[in-house]
Write a structure and sequence with these properties.
The protein has 440 residues and is of the alpha+beta class. It has twelve helices and 22 strands.
């Protein structure tokens, strides 16, 4: 009789507590409706990342000709007996200051911007652009013989490459110079909103001919893009007028854009985007000319600071970085954000019925939340909510959609889970099991 009266009193108090809290205190007043994960248009889905492979890095450099071809700003070492150098003196010895080519012999004379070379006593400059060093020696000899300044035979002319032409290139790296390893991973995962951590690095390179390409520029500035950088590099050609015209055109288009219009893609003739990771079936869209860097070009490695998603609801508010080279679906996003997966019962402090018969309170017993809402951006600055049930997602791969940058992932209880948790937290099941099962 005592036990029956006791449980009657408990039930009465539980019902009173429900009445005091009221429906508005138990159920959300404005539940967010959304699309089912199976009905999402393809243009709103995130393409997979894990199927991409590193690019063949040979495609990031140029194929150097053999032998070397001369062009503007190459400096030659030239010795012409009796004209450039005295007959009774040995020709000058010129070691290469960069150490890239063997020492030269003769007097240093640069090739002019138009690809020609001016020599003493010759009425006209000689054209050397696109010629080899051996061909240049023959051309110079023929020019002097043609003007009857030297004899065809028995006259010494030596032409060697003293200093290859160079191209000044600017490299801007927002990934801190391409540092790899554990330190860089920790810096990205523990990123703070401080200017010091977001500061990039810059380099000015003087790149010798046939080494002036993307791969050499990356290697000289720290290596390939790190995990905190976008898997691509941008090459901005050194042309101020074209860049200014492109910027003005884009600004005018956006200024006159209607509220329900999508901004048309504006091609930048001064910019080439070269990916460093491609899917196996993806065909590279760049050519060898695109990876060759010229005078004044700018190479940019951008950080992927905005490649994140946000959490809310029972997950709490946080900004979580997305992995660069593999996919993160909704269940993995819940896991890395500290949420609970499985949708089962969680009894007691340790869970899994571990406190049964111990006399410990089970007042914290709950049913795990299973309702996930993903708020995803759409064109025209709109948003669409996507509904996913974690219990169904365990068995249905179509529910496990990939997370996109900028998504807001909200974890919450379903209405049934709210009421079930109220019931479980109202009645002391530990006392019931102690009395009925363990006979305490």
């Amino acid at each position: 009789m005592f036990c029956a009266r006791k449980w009657t009193l408990v039930l009465t108090l539980g019902l009173m507590s429900l009445g005091l809290t009221g429906c508005t205190g138990l159920m959300p007043s404005n539940r967010l409706e959304g699309l089912n994960a199976r009905r999402i248009p393809k243009n709103l889905l995130e393409p997979p990342r894990s199927n991409k492979e590193p690019l063949d890095y040979v495609m990031l450099r140029q194929d150097a000709p053999n032998p070397y071809l001369l062009d503007a700003y190459d400096t030659l070492g030239i010795y012409i007996e009796g004209i450039l150098g005295k007959e009774d003196e040995p020709p000058p010895y010129l070691p290469d200051p960069l150490g890239n080519v063997p020492p030269a012999i003769g007097y240093p004379i640069p090739i002019r911007r138009d690809g020609t070379l001016v020599l003493p006593l010759l009425k006209e400059p000689v054209e050397l652009k696109g010629k080899t060093v051996a061909e240049a020696q023959d051309i110079i000899r023929e020019a002097y013989v043609k003007e009857e300044l030297i004899q065809p035979e028995g006259f010494r002319i030596l032409v060697t490459l003293y200093r290859p032409r160079t191209y000044q290139v600017i490299v801007i790296r927002e990934d801190g110079g391409g540092e790899l390893g554990r330190a860089n991973i920790e810096r990205f995962q523990a990123r703070e909103n401080s200017a010091s951590n977001e500061r990039g690095t810059g380099f000015i390179l003087d790149m010798p001919a046939y080494e002036n390409d993307v791969l050499h520029a990356l290697m000289e500035t720290g290596g390939l893009p790190g995990i905190d950088a976008k898997p691509e590099v941008k090459v901005l050609r050194g042309n101020f007028k074209k860049s200014l015209t492109t910027a003005k055109t884009r600004a005018e288009v956006l200024k006159n854009l209607g509220t329900c219009e999508l901004a048309p893609p504006t091609d930048n003739p001064n910019m080439v985007i070269i990916p460093t990771r491609l899917a196996p079936e993806e065909i590279p869209s760049f050519t060898q000319e695109d990876v060759i860097l010229g005078e004044g070009d700018v190479l940019v490695v951008e950080a992927r600071n905005r490649d994140v998603f946000y959490t809310g609801g029972l997950l709490g508010g946080a900004e979580v970085p997305l992995p660069r080279d593999y996919d993160l679906d909704v269940m993995a996003a819940i896991a890395v954000s500290g949420g609970q997966l499985g949708g089962g019962f969680r009894f007691g402090v340790a869970g899994n019925f571990s406190s049964f018969g111990s006399g410990a309170s089970l007042r914290g017993s709950t049913i795990a939340p299973t309702e996930v809402t993903i708020i995803r951006e759409t064109p025209f600055n709109k948003q669409v909510p996507i509904k996913i049930n974690l219990r169904k997602a365990l068995a249905d791969p179509s529910q496990r959609i990939l997370i996109k940058p900028g998504d807001v992932v909200i974890l919450d209880y379903t209405p049934a889970e709210v009421w079930a948790n109220i019931f479980l937290n109202t009645f002391p099941f530990n006392t019931l099991f102690d009395k009925l099962i363990f006979n305490r």
